[in-house]
Design brief:
The complex is a heterodimer. By secondary structure, chain A is of the alpha/beta class. Chain A contains ten helices and 18 strands. Chain A folds into two domains: about 25-110 and about 180-250 and about 345-410, FAD/NAD(P)-binding domain (3-Layer(bba) Sandwich); about 115-175 and about 255-340, D-Amino Acid Oxidase, subunit A, domain 2 (D-Amino Acid Oxidase, Chain A, domain 2), CATH 3.30.9.10. In chain A, the strands form three sheets. In chain A, strands 1, 2, 8, 9, 10, 11, 17 and 18 form an eight-stranded mixed sheet that branches. Chain A has an eight-stranded mixed sheet with strand order 5-6-4-13-14-15-12-16. Chain A is globular, with a radius of gyration of 21 Å. The mean pLDDT of chain A is about 95. Chain B is built from three helices and six strands; from the N terminus they run E-E-E-H-H-E-E-E-H. Chain B has helices at about 30-35, 40-50, 100-105, and strands spanning about 1-5, 10, 15-20, 60-65, 70-80, 85-90. In chain B, strands 3-4-5-6 form a four-stranded antiparallel sheet, with no helix packed on it. In chain B, strands 1-2 form a two-stranded antiparallel sheet. In chain B, strand 4 and strand 5 form a beta hairpin. Classes of the chains: A alpha/beta, B alpha+beta. The interface of A and B includes residues 250, 302, 304, 310 and 412 of A. Flavin-adenine dinucleotide binds next to helix 2 and strand 12 of chain A. Chain B: InterPro entries: SoxD, SoxD_sf.
Chain lengths: ~425, ~110
């Protein structure tokens, strides 16, 4: 089914009863050229690009629950390309460009909204750091503007500019950044991949790998039986260590919980995304009107998909310090997701030491914005057996070789990234 | 999640700071110096600093009670449920056994 104004009008005439399935519900075949583990944004995007760009269509995506039940459906939907270090800068800008053409590419309304992001600064030192970041972005052809307090006040008059500890001196603005509808991204990739022949198989948990005499991976054991595969790519985010362990691998990753919050809906207030890093708080407003906000990781290893009160308190305090009017709004919902925190805060897209097994992991709390580029570059690796130019630094062995990409400079303490 | 500190009683986890998995053991530095960074030792340090079991289930880990008695504690906690089954005082471990303080002669 192709979506357009005409299909909408036609369906409206039949009371919206004529819509066909967005993707099929196939039973697993006995063998695929490529099996992708994980039906989050990254797994589905990988399958789409394999079929669309690299002509490999005998592909299955295996998802243990329903697609988008992991972090893809739990994140705060911010997309941006304001990274500074070689490796990240180009990769995230590639992703931003793919966001800009996504709706046409997928024939799906993913509600990409380039409403801008402002990172606030509160001291001369922080301004210098942001000026440097902005300059790196501009040298790389990415838009960035350094604003002072007067300019910020025009855009965001409701912030508290005179906070004694963190007075707002200005901010770094990326206008092309913004938000997208997270569920629609999952559905859009499933829809487009399915149309190209990819099998999206839900309720199918991978429980082990089948290997030949040389140790090469030849397929997967699943809750729906054994499935053979020419190659297996894992894109399971917070579950990366668990799945890798099935192949005998230990990863430079810890799983941590990150919480997010949504308020009751209010009239349009916040034009874009605002980050208050000094106060561990960031916020945007959804199209439904709810304020969507969050802050830091809880800080301890967790697979529980729920967090604890101290971080809720900390995030809400940050909100009160930045925009005191937020105290009048009631909190509607709160949840947690499991982050695959890598040891330098940067992802991994690479082969593994196990022949036939490829890894896409370590996305930390920032992998939603990466979804399209992650899919494209992982598909490239799977199809061509060589890294995509923009992802070649995301190597699994970079920790061994001293080639970390530590955007925050925190070292090997994942709960600080 | 509340942690029953053996010295202070049950407190909310916001009073505590997390160091992480108690399993990784720092390899002996001596060996590294003598061997001039022999591959085996470098490998052992890579393992210690970067690789984790990242257990989904019961895990032994270090927490620091900075908002209370400032003791290092060793917990057994289930990372899948947050259930804590044991809390013990762990003097001389945690960050006090980390590289900085092993090498440190500041006092
Ligand atoms: C609260 C929160 C806020 C965030 N905010 C942002 C943000 O604003 N911007 C941003 O860029 N990023 C953000 N992120 C991070 C982003 O959501 C993730 O980095 C990204 O979604 C990870 O990739 P994914 O979509 O493929 O992961 P997931 O959606 O988690 O996909 C992995 C899938 O693998 C499946 N799986 C696991 N094990 C198995 C198995 N054994 N067999 C089969 N399937 C399996 C899981 O069920 C899951 O569906 C946020 C995350 C959270 C939790």
């Amino acid at each position: 089914m192709k979506y357009s104004i005409f299909s909408l009008a036609r369906a409206a005439l039949s009371g919206h009863k004529s819509w066909a399935r967005t993707w099929r519900d196939p039973a697993p075949k006995s063998h695929y050229d490529v099996v992708i583990i994980g039906g989050g944004g990254h797994g589905l995007a990988t399958a789409y690009f394999l079929a669309h760009t690299y002509g490999i269509r005998n592909v299955a995506v295996l998802e243990k629950g329903w697609i988008g039940s992991g972090n893809a459906g739990r994140n705060t939907t911010i997309i941006r390309s304001n990274y500074m270090l070689p490796g990240n800068t180009g990769f995230y800008e590639l992703s931003m460009k793919l966001w800009e053409s996504m709706e046409q590419d997928l024939n799906y309304n993913t509600m990409v909204s380039q409403r801008g992001i402002i990172n606030l600064y509160h001291s001369d030192a922080q301004r210098d750091a942001f000026a440097r970041r902005g300059n790196v972005m501009r040298i790389n052809g990415i838009d960035a503007e350094l604003l002072d307090a007067v300019q910020i006040r025009k855009m965001l008059p409701f912030l508290n500019y005179d906070n004694a500890r963190f007075p707002i001196q200005g901010g770094l603005l990326q206008r092309r950044a913004g938000t997208a509808r997270h569920d629609a991204v999952v559905w859009g990739y499933a829809h487009a991949a399915d149309k190209l022949g990819v099998d999206v198989i839900q309720n199918c948990e991978v429980t082990g790998f089948t290997r030949d005499a040389n140790g090469k991976v030849t397929g997967v054991e699943t809750s729906r039986g054994r499935i053979g595969a020419g190659k297996v790519g894992m894109a399971v985010a917070g579950s990366s260590s668990r799945v890798a362990a099935m192949a005998g691998l230990r990863l430079p990753i810890e799983s941590h919980v990150l919480q997010a919050f949504v308020s009751e809906a209010i009239k349009p207030l916040i034009p874009g995304v605002i980050t208050f890093g000094a106060g561990h708080f960031y916020v945007s407003q959804s199209d439904k009107g709810g304020l969507v906000f969050g802050g830091d990781l809880d800080g301890y290893n967790s697979y529980a998909q729920r967090g604890n009160m101290p971080v809720m308190e900390d995030v809400c305090e940050g909100g009160m310090a930045l925009m005191p009017m937020i105290g009048r709004v009631r909190l509607l919902r709160q949840w947690g997701g499991i982050m695959d925190m890598s040891m330098d805060g940067t992802p991994i897209i690479d082969r593994t030491p196990v022949d036939g097994l490829y890894i896409n992991a370590g996305w930390c709390y920032g992998g939603f914005k990466a979804t399209p580029a992650s899919g494209l570059t992982f598909a490239h690796l799977l199809a061509r057996e060589e890294p995509h130019e923009e992802a070649r630094r995301f190597r699994l062995d970079r920790f061994q070789r001293g080639l970390m990409i530590d955007e925050k400079g925190q070292g090997a303490q994942p709960n600080l990234h | 999640m509340r942690i029953a500190c053996p010295f202070c009683g049950e407190r909310e986890n916001g009073e505590f700071t997390y160091l992480g998995d108690a399993k990784p053991q720092r390899p002996a530095m001596v060996a590294l110096e003598v061997a001039g960074g022999a591959a085996g030792e470098a490998e052992a340090f890579y393992d210690y600093v970067y690789l984790r079991d990242n257990v989904a289930g019961e895990m032994d880990e270090y927490w620091y009670h900075g908002g209370g008695c400032r003791s290092w504690l060793r917990l057994t906690r289930n990372t899948a449920t947050h259930e804590i089954t044991s809390v013990e005082a762990a003097p001389g471990t945690g960050a006090s056994s980390s590289p900085a303080s092993t090498a440190g002669t500041i006092s």
